[in-house]
Amino acid sequence: MQYRKLFLILLCFVPLVGFGQAKLEKLLDERDRMHREWKASESQKSGIFGNRTKKDMIATNEWMARIIQKDNQIMDELKMLSEIEKTEITYEKNDYKFISQKQEREIGVLKRALQERDDAVREKASNKRTYEWTTFIFFLSTSVLGFLYFKKIKAER
To answer: In a designed cystine with 52, which of 1, 56, 117, 142 is the match (CB 3.0 to 4.6 A)?
Structure first.
């Protein structure tokens, strides 16, 4: 049951991680494109005698603002991927904790069963000793009574 739950969770998160990676790659490609555009606008000089005009500087600043905005999107995406990883790790940790607790319970059950079996073996061994002593005493008493009986019979003859 627990393994099914883990499988379903992983099945849900794997596409998200893959999608998140693809989205991150797309954002990085867009940022690279924007950076090239910014470099191009940086080198643009439309003023008299090859100087930069106010319009050129505004265009360069607009590209820089777009790059900063894209950087913020990239940071948000990285935070989201980090949260997904943390969630996955938390689920895995909880699953491993559950599995270890279950195994500890099973080990406890097995230890109790082993202890009960050992107690039963000791009890049977003590019963065996009792029977051995009883048989020995019976044999000894029978031998002594037989000896006395034969002695009495010989004395009467």
So the answer is: 56
